[in-house]
Write a sequence for this structure.
């Protein structure tokens, strides 16, 4: 099999129509395959991350340069492309409480201290008036030998200190 | 009969609507046996639908007892022309499918279902199922309409933040 080279491209741009299409056109015309991607609109800013592969061994600068005509230049990270998916049990963790600084830091610190690997994290502030609520949804993978009772209790304890509520559910996954 | 190859998307049979079974023929009996054999041969499989082995007939076979975590279940069941006539509640499950390998996604399904169907003697039956078994039945009967779980995957972000306006 021919060797493939992997590149992670991230774009952050003020939102406008056609951004994904324009970026995908450059990738297609330069012979890249999109292996994985995530794009979303955050407070009017559109962010796109593409994991792409190519048979060509290119420098990060050369890949970024392909987007010169588009007006948005990605930041490019070249990597080995070996998939390293976390293998332990996966959890869905929701955290919410009155908005205040430090919630993400406090909660994710507990996860880091216990070797829990975050695979997805999304946050949002909701509410119109003074009583704004901060919501955070996390998906994370624990090590095979992690003590669930111990780290979830530590998480609950930190949640109490930060005035937030935490729910932690093991994700049941099944191939039918 | 035989263990069949499980068709994998983009095989066109997986996106077609299967036809009602009107009588118990030798061919239909063979499909049912093949479905059982194929399901049992896939170590972890708890259910299979006829289109997955290339037969466009409305038949599913499942056995929720093969999932050790599913305590309450109806055991090995063959359903001909199944129709979900009642459903209630909602459960989110991360599903995968033998016909869509290497991909999983969160899907919302009814928590409880009531199903009308014909058994192997073409006698009408009613089955109540909940939890894992209810999800399993919905997943398998979707195959009879050419619907894969990918058609029902929900976006986590959209799911959580879909409400844009208040009041």
């Amino acid at each position: 099999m021919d060797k493939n080279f992997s590149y992670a491209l991230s774009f952050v741009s003020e939102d406008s129509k056609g951004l994904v299409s324009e970026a995908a056109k450059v990738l297609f015309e330069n012979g890249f395959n999109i292996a994985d991607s995530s794009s979303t609109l955050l407070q009017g800013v559109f962010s796109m991350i593409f994991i792409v592969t190519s048979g060509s061994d290119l420098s990060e600068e050369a890949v970024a340069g392909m987007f010169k005509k588009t007006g948005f230049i990605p930041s490019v990270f070249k990597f080995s492309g070996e998939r390293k998916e976390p293998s332990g049990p996966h959890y869905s963790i929701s955290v919410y409480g009155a908005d205040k600084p430090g919630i993400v830091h406090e909660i994710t610190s507990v996860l880091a201290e216990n070797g829990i690997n975050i695979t997805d994290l999304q946050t949002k502030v909701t509410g119109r008036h003074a009583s704004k609520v901060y919501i955070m949804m996390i998906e994370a993978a624990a090590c095979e030998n992690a003590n669930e009772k111990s780290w979830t209790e530590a998480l609950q304890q930190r949640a109490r200190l930060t005035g937030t509520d935490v729910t932690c559910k093991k994700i049941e996954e099944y191939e039918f | 009969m035989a263990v069949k190859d499980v068709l994998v998307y983009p095989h066109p049979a997986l996106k077609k609507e299967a036809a009602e079974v009107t009588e118990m023929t030798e061919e239909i009996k063979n499909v049912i046996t093949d479905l059982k054999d194929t399901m049992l041969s896939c170590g972890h499989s708890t259910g299979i639908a006829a289109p997955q082995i290339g037969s466009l007939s409305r038949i599913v076979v499942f056995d929720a007892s093969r999932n050790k975590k599913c305590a309450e279940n109806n055991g090995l069941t063959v359903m001909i022309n199944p129709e979900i006539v009642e459903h209630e509640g909602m459960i989110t499950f991360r599903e995968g499918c033998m016909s869509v390998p290497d991909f999983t996604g969160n899907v919302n399904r009814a928590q409880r279902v009531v199903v009308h169907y014909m058994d192997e003697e073409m006698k009408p039956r009613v089955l109540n199922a909940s939890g894992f078994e209810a999800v399993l039945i919905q997943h398998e009967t979707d195959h009879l309409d050419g619907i894969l779980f990918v058609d029902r995957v929900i976006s986590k972000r959209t799911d959580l933040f879909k409400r844009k306006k208040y009041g």
